[in-house]
Amino acid sequence: MHASIRRYRVMDAEALVKMFQEEFVERARTVEGFVGYYVVDGGDGTITTITLGETEEAVEVSNVQARDWVIERAAHLVEGAPDVTAGEVRVRVER
Q: In the chain, at which residue ranges do the beta strands (DSSP E only) sit?
């Protein structure tokens, strides 16, 4: 399993979360190997998204989709480029 964590500085967290829910989620689901997508409101002007994929390629495709979507649809809500960390999930614990 692979993951990508993208941390955004935002001007309006509520508006961005709503846009992720209404617009981006369906796009993310189209990626072959998609496992999950999470949006975390840090409460301090940050939004963190977490993407999980079966393969590195699935996460790379999702990152490109996220970047393009933010540029096209949500740039007015985001301050600069996000901090991105991507790689292999080395420890996985689930209930």
A: 2-9, 34-41, 46-53, 83-88
